Amino acid sequence: MTLPDKFSIIVGAFFVAFVLVTNAQGDFLHMSCPAGSYDMTSYVRPGVGITSDIILESMSSSLRECARFCIARSSCLSFTYHTKTTVCGLSKHTMDNGITKKGQDLIYSEYQWLPAEVTYFHFSK
Prior knowledge:
32% of the residues lie in helices and 26% in strands.
């Protein structure tokens, strides 16, 4: 067996293991989870966002999906969802220690504001 063949087998095995682990834990981007049963407006602050220490900016189909992005990243403490552009910004800061901005199209929330049932279901930080 040649080295490229061994490499292909290792990569294939890693991919299969990743898929199995992801399915066992739940695919946080596509699964049906408790976040879908919560009214997210109870856990957000509209009209404000955070602009400091952004760790990821990504297109997001909804506020719930933006929350899921934050839940899935251990370094995420808060997120801002831009309703006009559908951009989700994750930050290592919160309103207590970050730079904020105001805007009608902004919705802000913090990981710690989300219900424990939702954050525990996905991943513990």
